[in-house]
């Protein structure tokens, strides 16, 4: 009798353990889906913000920009913004905008690092502090990861980096 009860308890425990494993796997899958949706939403938001910024830049921009590369990147991203916000189901426009932000970030980062004679770590620290002064909150390691292009960036990271890059366009700093 005790053996029968023990066997039943063991089977119940095993069934509960298996159910917990299935629930845990399902939760992990749902969490991953939510993260993908959050990143997608953030990238779409960055596209909209970028389009708004491009419209403001065109109306506020002087005739001479000084840097042909910067203006051609802005023009390319403006056309990408308008084509990707036109209702196209192709997500490549979103990734083009994120890629454009990364390119512009690296250009500003590298130019400032050289002008200030900073090491890579010092420049990452400076970017993190600048973003904090703009009201953001980003870690130095996140700046390093974004610069290196390793892994996916969250919408928040892309937006904060974009705000940092745009602060130079708005202030014509350095």
Name some characteristics of this structure:
single chain, 174 residues, mainly alpha, 6 helices, elongated
Layout of helices and strands, plus pairs?
Elements: H1 2-60, H2 68-84, H3 92-116, H4 120-133, H5 140-148, H6 155-171
Helix pairs in contact: 1-2, 1-3, 1-6, 2-3, 3-6, 4-5
Short description:
The protein is mostly helical and 174 residues long.
Q: How does this structure look, described?
A:
This protein has 174 residues and is an all-alpha fold. It has one domain. The chain is 81% helix and 0% strand. Helix 1 crosses helix 2, helix 2 packs antiparallel against helix 3 and helix 3 crosses helix 6. The protein is elongated and about 85 Å long.
Number of strand elements = 0
Structural class: mainly alpha
User: Which value, in Å, is the CA radius of gyration?
Assistant: 24 Å
- Largest sheet data: none
Strand fraction: under 5%
The number of helical runs is: 6
Distance between the termini: 84 Å
Mean pLDDT across all amino acids: 74
Helix content: over 70%
Q: Order of helices and strands, N to C?
A: HHHHHH
Summed up, the domain count is 1
Report the uncertain regions: 61-90
Shape type? elongated
